[in-house]
Write a sequence for this structure.
């Protein structure tokens, strides 16, 4: 049976309605696809705690986590990813790509121009349908 991993992704907005998008590097799984920065929820961790920890590790800044946006189960060839995305804002520091190939602030309306990890598409759709209060 395929393993299911619980993963949280931060949809980080700036004050110009742009979203911070992260490009997975060619040494990561799902190489060269865009994602919402975040990672796997560890035992005993709350989803919000995972997000703050992962963003600190990956981007070197501190976020405040706001409301949940979407929950998706996506079956990849090797694993089922249970992706939970949350709206977030940066409260301290400047994001820098420590693990990703690239970080890019993308205007909300242009999100579809990136090639996303498949599990992220429903979140992008919710964002574009304006179901999230910014
Ligand atoms: N962080 C993050 N991961 C995502 C997203 N969409 C998506 O399918 N994933 C997948 C990629 C990974 O398989 C898993 C998250 O694991 P991770 O961020 O800890 O990445 P990793 O490269 O260390 O994991 P692995 O797959 O190499 O074991 O979820 C997303 O938006 N953000």
């Amino acid at each position: 049976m395929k393993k299911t991993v619980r993963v949280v992704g931060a949809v980080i907005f700036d004050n110009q309605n742009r979203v911070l998008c992260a490009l997975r590097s060619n040494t990561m799984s799902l190489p060269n696809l865009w994602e919402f920065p975040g990672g796997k929820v560890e035992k005993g961790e709350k989803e919000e705690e995972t997000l703050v920890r992962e963003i600190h590790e990956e981007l070197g800044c501190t976020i405040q986590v706001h409301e949940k946006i979407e929950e998706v189960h996506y079956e990849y060839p090797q694993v089922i990813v249970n992706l939970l995305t949350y709206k977030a804002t940066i409260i301290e520091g400047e994001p820098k790509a420590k693990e990703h190939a690239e970080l890019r602030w993308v205007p909300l309306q242009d999100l579809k121009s990136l090639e996303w990890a498949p599990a992220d598409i429903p979140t992008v759709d919710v964002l574009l349908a304006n179901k999230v209060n910014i």
